[in-house]
Predict the 3D structure of the following.
Amino acid sequence: MKPPSQRRIVEERTYRRLAMVDRLTSFHVSAQETDLMVMAQKDLRDICREEVLAQRGYIEHYIMRFPAFRTTLAPWIDASPAPEIIHMMAAAGRACGVGPMAAVAGAIAETVGQALRCYSREVIVENGGDVFLALDSAVTIGLYAGKSPLSMRIGLQLDPGGKPLAVCTSSGTVGHSLSRGKADAVCIVARQCALADAAATAVANRVASRDVIPEAIRYARSIDGVEGVVAICGDRMGLWGDLHVVKLNDTKKA
């Protein structure tokens, strides 16, 4: 759980401007290394910060007991009593064949988002490009893909229908996240944010070049719970699922 680089912070802020929802109140919450952009029906930043610190505390104390949880790239066999967020991360990693920390950003976004839903029917929590959504109507999420000519040119128009939905992104060329591939962006849509985060990492690991995008898409389809995927490498894009891809200059704020 390292602090984000300045380069990634700039990328996150660009991303965030593409997901604004006018009817909601937007606020920013930083707690230790975690940096969230949150939207809800009212300002809930104090509750949000308390939840972030609680969830981070669970993870940090677990890592003190089991240091390998932080560093392993293999699925974690979770046999000991642990907080729910640990089980969530471990389960997501097992489903996708990656280590549990591949799901940490999505897991924090999800647990914080679910906690805020006790106070606000509609919620968006974005954690480093991993987004938890609970909205009554459609929203457009822009796809940032580094130096790809497709970056900031397209977005996903999503309608969560009042139920939680997650959009998580991994890249081999953008940011400091560990990736074995060269994808400019792999975006996963799923109902569980921790799963979407782990799946984005697993699929991005498989994009060694634009020629293997179809193979990576097939792998994404095999992960139970994944509802859609977009993979971008250079000037080539592959996608699967019931996704509505739009040009960003053709969209309006929700």
